[in-house]
Amino acid sequence: MNHSPAPPPIGLAPDALPVLRERGQREVFCGLTSIVWLHRKIQDAFFLVVGSRTCAHLLQSAAGVMIFAEPRFATAIIEERDLAGLADANDELDRIVTRLLERRRDIRLLFLVGSCPSEVIKLDLGRAAARLSARFAPEVSVLHYSGSGIETTFTEGEDAALAALVPVLPREADDAAPSLMVVGALSEIVEDQLARLFAEIGIAPVHFMPARRAREMPPLGSKTRFILAQPFLAETARGLMARGAQPIAAPFPLGAEGTSLWLGAAAAAFGIAPAALSARLGASEARARAAMAPHRAILAGKHVFFFPDSQLEVPLARFLARELGMELIEVATPYLHRQHLAAELALLPPDVMLVEGQDVERQLDRCRAAKPDLVVCGLGLANPLEAEQLTTKWSIELLFTPIQGYDQAGDLAELFARPLRRRARLRI
Amino acid sequence: MQLTLWTYEGPPHIGAMRIATSLQNVHYVLHSPQGDTYADLLFTMIERREARPPITYTTFQARDLGADTAALFKNSVRDAYARFKPDLMVVGASCTAELIQDDPGGLAHALALPIPVVPLELPAYQKKENWGASESFYQIVRACARPAAAARPARPPASTEGRRPLCNILGPTALGFRHRDDLREIKALLGTLGIAIGVVAPLGAAPADLARLGEADFNVVLYPEIAHLTAQWLQRQFGQPATMTVPIGVGATRRFIAEVAALSGLAPDAPSVTAALAGSTLRLPWYSRSVDSTYLTDKRVFIFGDATHALAAARIARDELGLAVVGLGTYSREFARDFRAAAETYGVKPLITDDYLEVEREIAAAEPALVLGTQMERHIAKRLGIPCAVISAPIHVQDFPAHHAPYMGFEGANAIFDAWIQPLMMGLEEHLLTMFREDFEFHTAAPPSHLGRHVPQASPPAANTDPTRWVDEALRELAKIPFFVRGKARRNTEKFAAERGISPITLETLYDAKAHFSH
Ligand code: SF4
Fold first, then answer.
1. Which of B516, B328, B308, B303 is nearest to B407 (CA)?
2. In what order do the strands lie in the sheet with A206-209?
3. Quick check: B430 pLDDT over 60?
4. CA B309 to CA B407: how far, in whole Å?
5. Separation of CA A235 and ligand 1 centre (Å)
6. For B480-510, how does the pLDDT look when each residue is reduced to its tens digit (9 = 90+)?
7. CA of A52 relative to ligand 1 center, distance in Å
8. Contact B372/B388 with Cβ under 8 angstroms?
9. For residue A381, how far is its CA from the centre of ligand 1 (angstroms)?
10. Beta partners for residue B89, in sequence order
11. What is the spatial distance between Cα B361 and Cα B329, in angstroms, rounded to a whole number?
12. How many inter-chain contacts (A to B, CB under 8 Å) are there?
C-alpha cells in the first residue's frame, strides 16, 4: 500500500465539516425496497410485508424489471374489514402464513415486515412472529422488523432486517478463538473474493452476515470482531455490540483505497503488521488501480452532484473525489451517521457541501444552477433530469451490482463513467 | 387480509396520479410517507415521461405523527401552489394518511387559494387504481365543466344545422395501456368520418379545456374503466350521449363507426361512413382466412385482463381468429355484472378475481395453447411453457414501444393479429413437430425455438403414477406427444379408461380414446 495515504485516525469524528440539514419533500424509497435484494441474498428466506396495496405496488414496481424467478416476497394486504375489526388481524395473518408456507415448503426463515399502515394501527408483529415461530418450529423460524416509510429509508430496511437476525444468531463460546464477522448483504462474488483476501492475510475464521441460508447464520460471542461492509447498518451494529461483539471502525471497501483501508483496519484488529499486509495486498491494489485508470481519464475534473438515496453517498463521494479525481458539488444523504462515517468524512475534501435530509424542489434548483457533469439520483428523477440535458447515474444500481473490493473497483468506476461515455458517443 | 404476490392494480391514489399527470396545469398534493414517492418512477421510467409528474408528497415521518402532520400538509399545499402556480389543485391522502385522518380537503380549503381545489376521498383499503382514476376524473370534471352557451338537451343533430358534428374523446390517460396509440388511431378514424374533436380528456387537457366539455354533441368513451362515470354525469348534466362500443377488433370497430355515425346524424351510407368502414389498411380478415391460419382453428386460449380488454380479446379470439376461448377472467370487479353476462356467451365460467394465485391455478387447469393476459400472466405462462401475448394493464416498460402500436381501430386489429399469432407456432412448423415428434431436438420437453431459452417446468410428467395405471408401452407413446397437448391427451385417455373401467391403459386404449375424442 505504498501509494495510498496513511489511514486516518479512526474514531475521531471530524465535526468540523458543516452540514446543511433539510426538511422538505423527500424523494426516496422506504425500507421495504431492501427486500428486493435481500430475498435473493438469503435463499431460503421469505419476506411477508404486512401492509397496504401501496406497499405491494411499491415492491413490484421497484422489483419490476429485475425478477425472473418467482419472488420470495409477498404482501398481506390490510383491508377494510381488518380495520373495522370485523376480522381478527392475528387470525388473518395466521391463515395467510399457513397458506404461504404450504405453497413454499423450501422456506426456513420468514420475516414479517411492518409497514406504515401496520405501524399506525399498531399491529403487534413481534407477538405474531413469536406465535407463528412456535407453531412452525422447527421447520421455519419467524422474525419481524419494520420497513415502513415513516421509520426507514431505502437501505435502512436491510439494517432493520439484519438487526432482527442478531438476537437469534447462535452463541459462540467465550473461549472460542477470535473470529471476524463481515456485516452487510454482499453479492456472492464479492464475498468469495473478500474471503480469499482474508485467508491470504491470515484472518480466520471469517463469517459473512447474512449468510446465504437461514441455518448457516454466523455464530456470535465476546470474541467476535465485526466490520461493516455497508454504511447503513447502525441498528445492526448496535445489536451486535449489545451481544458483546467488538466493532472495527473503517472506511468502506469501495475503490482500491477504500478496500485497502478496510482490510487494513481488520488486519490491525487481528494484530497483523502493516508491512506484512502491504506485501500481500500490493498486487491486488495495483490491479484495481489499473482497472480504474481508463475511467479516471473520463471522470477526472468532472463535477458530480449527489441526491440523497442509499446512504452510500459519502463513501462514493470519497471514492470519486480521491481515486477518480472528480469534483464534489453536493453530497446529500438521507441520514449522516457521523459515527460510522467518521473515517470516511475525514477523507473528504474540507470544502465539501454535505446535506442531510432533503427538500427535493430546492435541491433540484441547486442542481440545475450548478449544471454538474454527472448527477447521482433515484429512479424518479433520472429521466426528467436527462430530458433537461443533465447526465445521470441511477443510484439503485449501486445496490444491485457487485461494487465492493479490489476486483470491483474498475466496475464501480465504470458505472459512473458509462453515462458520460454514452452521452459523448450518441450522434442523435 | 389478502395474500398478494403481484397486484393487478395499484392503490386508488395511483389512479388519481394518472389523471393529474394526464392533465395540464393541475397539481396534486398527496399526504403520504416518503416511500410513496416511488410512484414517480412509474411515469418517468415505465412511460419514459420527460417531466416529473405534477405531484407533491408531504413525506411525513414517524416523528411528525406525534407533532403536527396537518400543519405539514398545509405548508406543502402552500409551497406547491407558490412554486407551480397550477390552474387547479387536487388534494388527498394515501393509505397511511387515511389512517391519521387529517382531512386534506378541509385543510386545503382553509388556505383559501385563488384556484379551485378538488379534494379526493379515495378509500385505500377498499378501492383500487382504476376506481381511483375514474373517481378523480369525475370529480375534476364536475369542478370544471360548464354548460354550453347553447342550451342542451333538445339541441338538434349537427347534420341538420349544417355544421360538422363535434365530439369529445374521454378516457386516455398517462400510464394507460396503449392509450397514446389508440388515441391517434381513433382521432384519424373520426377525421375520416368528418367529425370534429372538441376536448380530449384527461390526456393533455387543461382545466380550461374541461370547462368546454359541454359544447360537444356527444362523447366517445374509449376506456369505460376510467371514463364511464364521467360520461354518465355529462349525459345527465348536458344531455350528451356517449358511445358504448369500445373499438377493439374488426367487428367492434365497425360497430363503433356505425354508432358514431348515428350519434352524429350521419346516414349509414354517407360517403364518409363508407370510407371509414372500408379500412383500406385492414389486413386481419384476409390474414385470418389465409390457409396458413387454419392451424389456429379451435386453439385453446385463456384470457385475463381488465374488463374492456378481456372482453374485446374474447370476441376477437372467437369471431375473428377462430380460437376456442377456454378461460375468461378479469380483475375489474367494478364490471363484474357485465362481464358475467358476456362470459356466458362463450360457455365458460367467468373468473373474477385479483388473486394472482387463483389465476395461476385456473390457467394450469385449463391447459391452453395460448394465454392472452397481463404481465402477470406472462410470468405464469412462462413457467408453464405456454405462449403468451399481453393484452392489458398493469403496465410494463414494454407496453410503451417506440413504434405506433394501437389496440383500437383497424390498425389495432392488424397489430393484434401480429402480436397474438407471433408467439404461436406457425402452421407448417406445427405439422413438422407432430410428424417428427421423435426428433431429438423437438420431441418431449423441447420448447418452440421462438419462445426463448426457457424450458417449461410444468409439462405434465409421463411418470407412471397411480391410481390410473399405464403399461410402459403406452406411456412411451404418450411421451412422444408434443408437450403442449400431452396433458390433455393424458387426461382424456384416463377419463376414457375410467368411464369404461379399463385398467391398465394400453396402446390400444390410448388410440381408442384419441378416436373417441376427435369427433
Ligand atoms: S412508505 Fe409506507 S405505505 Fe408507502 S410503500 Fe413504504 S411502507 Fe408502504
1. B308
2. A206-209, A179-183, A224-228, A246-248
3. no
4. 9
5. 20
6. 776 667 777 888 888 889 889 888 999 888 8
7. 8
8. yes
9. 19
10. B27, B117
11. 13
12. 181
3-state secondary structure of B96: helix
Which residue does chain B place closest to A84, by CA atoms?
Answer: B125
Q: Residue B167's CB: how many other CB atoms inside 10 A?
A: 26
For the CA of A115, the closest atom of ligand 1 is 7
- What value does the mean pLDDT take over residues B39-68? 93
Tell me how many degrees the CA angle B380-B386-B392 measures, rounded to the nearest 5.
Answer: 60
**All cell numbers assigned to B425:** 407456432
Q: Phi/psi zone of residue A317: left (φ > 0), alpha (ψ -120 to 50 degrees), beta?
A: alpha
The atom number, within ligand 1, closest to the CA of B94 reads 3
C-alpha cell at B144: 370544471
DSSP per residue, B427-469: HHHHHHHHHTTT-TTTSTTPPPGGG-S---S-SPP----SSS-
Q: Which amino acid is at B353?
A: T
- The bridge status of strand A303-306 relative to strand A374-377 is parallel
pLDDT of residue B116: 96
Q: Which three cell numbers stand for residue A252?
A: 468502506
- End-to-end Cα separation, chain B, in angstroms: 47
* Burial tier of A174 (Cβ tally within 10 Å: 0-12, 13-18, 19+): exposed
The Cα–Cα gap between A291 and B295 comes to 56
Residues 6+ apart with CB under 8 A from A314: A231, A331, A333, A336, A341, A344, A345, A348, A354
Among partner residues B4, B41, B50, which is closest to A61 by beta-carbon distance? Answer: B41
Q: Which of chain B's residues have a Cβ under 8 Å away from the Cβ of A82?
A: 1, 125
- Predicted TM-score (pTM) of the model is 0.89
User: Which of A395 and B362 is assigned the larger pLDDT?
Assistant: B362
Task: Decide if B397 contacts B45 (C-beta within 8 A).
Answer: yes
Determine the average pLDDT of the residues in B35-55. 95
Catalytic site includes residue B292: yes
Q: Is the pLDDT of residue A12 over 50?
A: no
According to DSSP, the β-strands at B2-4 and A73-77 are antiparallel
Task: Select the residue of B62, B96, B123 nearest A117 (Cβ to Cβ).
Answer: B96
Lowest-confidence pick of B120-129, B411-420, B447-456: B447-456
Contacts of A121 (CB under 8 A, 6+ apart): A78, A83, B99
> Rounded CA gap, A23 and A20, in Å?
10
* The amino acid at B324: A
Residue indicated by cell numbers 370510407 = B275
The sheet with strand B388-390 has its strands ordered as B350-352, B324-330, B300-305, B370-373, B388-390
How far does the CA of residue B249 sit from the closest CA of chain A (Å)? 30
Q: How far apart are the first and last CA of chain A?
A: 45
Answer whether A52 contacts ligand 1 (Cβ < 6 A).
yes
Distance, CA of A29 to CA of A310 (rounded, Å): 9
Give residue A10's pLDDT. Answer: 38
The burial class, CB within 10 Å (0-12 / 13-18 / 19+), for B286 is exposed
Q: How far is CA A210 from CA A38, A117, A213, B98, B177, in A?
A: 9, 28, 8, 36, 41
Q: How far is the CA of A121 from the centre of ligand 1 (A)?
A: 14
What is d(CA A280, CA A203) in angstroms, rounded to the nearest whole number? Answer: 13
Show which of residues 150-169 on chain A sit within 8 Å of chain B, judged by CB atoms: 150-151, 153
Q: How far apart are CA A428 and CA A196, in angstroms?
A: 46
Is A368 near chain B, with CB under 8 Å? no
Looking at the DSSP assignment, which residues form a beta bridge with residue A228? Answer: A183
Question: Which range among A66-70, A249-253, B245-249 shows the weakest confidence by mean pLDDT?
Answer: A66-70
| Cell (9 digits) for B470 | 399405464
User: Looking at residue B190, what DSSP letter applies?
Assistant: H
Yes or no, beta carbons of B10 and A54 under 8 Å apart: yes
Q: Which residue of the set B68, B79, B292, B439 is catalytic?
A: B292
Tell me how crowded residue B499 is: count the other CB atoms within 10 A of its CB: 10
B326 three-class SS = strand
